[in-house]
Amino acid sequence: MTVTPGFFPTFFLSGFECSSFHWKRQGRRDLVAETQHDRWVREDYALLRTLGIAVAREGIPWPLVEQGEGRFDFSRLDPVIEAMNESQIMPIWDLCHYGYPEGLDPLSEDFAARFARYCRAAAEYVCGRTPGPACFTPINEITFFSFCGGEWGWVAPYLTGREHRFALRTSLCRAAIAGAHAIREVDPQARMVNVDPLVYVVPPADRPDLADEAREETFQDTFAAWDILAGREHPEFGGSPEVLDIVGVNCYSFGQMEYREHGPHQALGPRDERIRPLADLLGVVWERYSRPIIIAETSGLRDGRPAWLKDVMEESLAAMARGIDLQGICLFPAVDMPDWHTGEWLHNGIFDLVPEGETLRREPYGPYIDELRRWQKALNRVTVLDEDPFSDPVNLEEVRAAAQRLQLQPDRDWS
């Protein structure tokens, strides 16, 4: 069999919720602390090792490490780096997960330059200190960040209105490009994973007059940030296919929606006939950019987690059988996270969080892990990491061969 090594050491990835936004004018949130990932980082990475997962999305909280303009304290990363080395887990460093330093205006002229200085400093601190090649997400979910901070007013900068969303999106893209260039001044071989939701929007059944708006959001707004990063739009910002690099698509059931003129759209039900197969949507991304793709986040909720993974795997393998360069699938998050609005646990992780006094115990959700094991075996993937997970990277030809053998067909069943 032809050997086509993937970029990552394992086909399955994971990650930890790391938002550090200012939330609804109530103050700074730190989801790493709220999930106690900072307290249990060694145990969290050891859990991934037992699952045969050697890659994790991990955050560097810009507003918490920048002590003043141009002054940084990255020492909080030392136990994280130590835990990664101990368990042989490769990070994808997330440099801006909705949070930025106090007093900084993301629409200002100096935002991109300040972000680039931070990215350079972060790369200087972490590059070469963890397993695997250096990998970064400069700004997470630019499109969604622009909605929740620029149109809905949920997070800082608490703007509202469509034009503010467009302005924030453009500014974030400009900063992400500057950040990518700054990182590569430190490590020219560093890879970027630019993450955004993959969505599909349809008009309400009784409002066919909104078909154009729904189509624009699906095929223009969804891709606007990636287009700028790729240099297809605003080439003066310095974007290019190499800056876009690896396209990280986030895939959740609520990503297929019915258009609403005001506020967030309404998620389609799992049997809605208007749902479009994930394999088809991945095909749109591949045809547009011809860049490697990962599913950068995906998960079901509660007891729907195993069925959701089954659906995503079937659709992903159907896409690979069509020739799409899919490099991996990230089960996100590894440990549970709270609903931003209510604080209730979402039960979307591989491990639930069970309060015991002041501790959040990690409780494996067995059916979800069983489904992961089933697919690892079907694809001939490791189920527990060996001493050197990086000695034998994923042979994507083996995964494609499994996809051809299984002959999975795309469908609209998004359970």
Range of helix content: 25-40%
The order of strands across the largest sheet is 1-2-5-6-7-9-12-13
Task: Work out the count of structural domains.
Answer: 1
Class per helix and strand makeup: alpha/beta
Could you name the CATH class?
Alpha Beta
CA-to-CA gap between the ends?
Answer: 35 Å
- The assigned CATH architecture is Alpha-Beta Barrel
Order of secondary-structure elements: EHHEHEEHEHEHHEEHHEEEHEHEEEHH
Global Rg: 20 Å
Average pLDDT, rounded to a whole number, is 96
Main sheet, how many strands, which sense, barrel? 8 strands, parallel, barrel
Protein name: Family 1 glycosylhydrolase
Organism: Deinococcus hohokamensis
InterPro entries: GH
Notes on the protein architecture:
An eight-stranded parallel barrel has the order 1-2-5-6-7-9-12-13, surrounded by four helices. Helix 5 packs parallel to helix 7 (162-186) and helix 6 (142-150) crosses helix 7. It has one domain (12-406): Alpha-Beta Barrel (TIM Barrel), CATH 3.20.20. The longest helix has 25 residues, at 162-186. 48% of the residues are buried. A hairpin with a 2-residue loop joins strand 3 and strand 4 (71-72). Helices cover 37% and strands 16% of the residues. It is an alpha/beta fold and 415 residues long.
Furnish the topology, listing elements before pairings.
Blueprint: E1 12-15, H1 31-34, H2 41-50, E2 55-59, H3 62-65, E3 66-68, E4 71-72, H4 78-87, E5 90-94, H5 111-126, E6 135-137, H6 142-150, H7 162-186, E7 191-197, E8 200-202, H8 211-229, H9 241-244, E9 246-251, E10 256-258, E11 266-267, H10 278-289, E12 293-298, H11 305-321, E13 326-331, E14 351-356, E15 359-364, H12 366-378, H13 396-406
Helix pairs in contact: 2-4, 5-7, 6-7, 7-8, 10-11, 11-12, 11-13
